[in-house]
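Incident review: delayed structure delivery

Summary: a single-chain prediction request sat in the queue longer than the usual turnaround. Root cause was a stuck worker, restarted by the on-call engineer. No data loss occurred. The affected request and its eventual output are reproduced below so the record is complete for anyone auditing the incident later.

Affected input:
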Amino acid sequence: MPLSHVYDTYAKAATGRIMHFDVVLDEQDHDKALKYAKAWLASIGHADATVTQENCAFCHSAEAPPELRQQIDSQGYGIYKLEGCPK
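Output delivered after worker restart:
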C-alpha cells in the first residue's frame, strides 16, 4: 500500500461553527489538499465556510485505512472527520 499524506484542516462555517477534519491524499500537495477541503465543504452544504492555507497544514504520512483508501481511489482524496463535522 502506498503512503498517504494527511493535512490537518480547520474550517469555519458561516454560522461560526468550527469543523476539524483531515484531508488525505496520495501525493504531498498543499494546493490540492486545500482545493479538496473546499470541494468537500461545498459537497456537505458549507460552500461558504472559510478554510485557508494556514488552516490546512501537512501533518504526517501513513497508510490509509480501508474506508479512506476507497475514498481516495474513487475521488482522489479522503476526508477523515474529527470534530464539529456533520455525521
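Verification: The first helix runs from residue 30 to 43.
Action items: add queue-age alerting; document worker restart procedure.
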